[in-house]
């Protein structure tokens, strides 16, 4: 059992390092907005631009919130781990 966990950890570490290396080597900088959103934001007045940027960030973070809620609901082990970490003094 511990060998399996060690193998999973090595795999996660290797994939994380590979992803980081690919991001560093990428020829084009990564943009947080798609081309349509970027064009719409650039064409809008300043107040609308600011509101649209907040909306775009909110839409980008929504899937992470949904995944966190699903993990919290479906995983009693995760809930116990987080509660134990917050109850330490």
Multimeric organization: single chain
Gyration radius (Cα, Å) is 20 Å
Structural class: mainly alpha
- State the helix count: 4
- The average pLDDT score comes to 77
Q: How far apart, in Å, are the first and last alpha carbons?
A: 31 Å
Helix content: over 70%
User: Beta fraction of the residues?
Assistant: under 5%
Shape: flat
Helix-strand sequence: HHHH
Low-confidence stretches: none
The strand count comes to: 0
Biggest sheet, in brief?
none
In short:
The protein is mainly α and 89 residues long.
List the helices and strands and how they pair.
Blueprint: H1 2-25, H2 35-43, H3 46-74, H4 76-87
Helix pairs in contact: 2-3
Task: Provide a descriptive summary of the structure in words.
By secondary structure, the chain is mostly helical. 83% of the residues lie in helices and 0% in strands. It is built from four helices and no strands. The protein has helices at 2-25, 35-43, 46-74, 76-87. Helix 2 runs antiparallel to helix 3.
List the main descriptive attributes of the protein structure presented here.
89 residues, mainly alpha
């Amino acid at each position: 059992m511990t060998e399996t966990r060690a193998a999973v950890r090595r795999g996660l570490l290797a994939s994380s390092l590979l992803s980081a290396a690919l991001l560093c080597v990428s020829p084009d900088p990564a943009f947080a907005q798609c081309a349509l959103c970027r064009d719409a934001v650039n064409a809008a007045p300043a107040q609308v631009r600011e509101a649209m940027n907040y909306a775009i960030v909110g839409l980008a973070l929504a899937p992470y919130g949904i995944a966190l809620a699903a993990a919290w609901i479906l995983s009693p082990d995760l809930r116990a781990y987080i509660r134990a970490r917050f109850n330490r003094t």
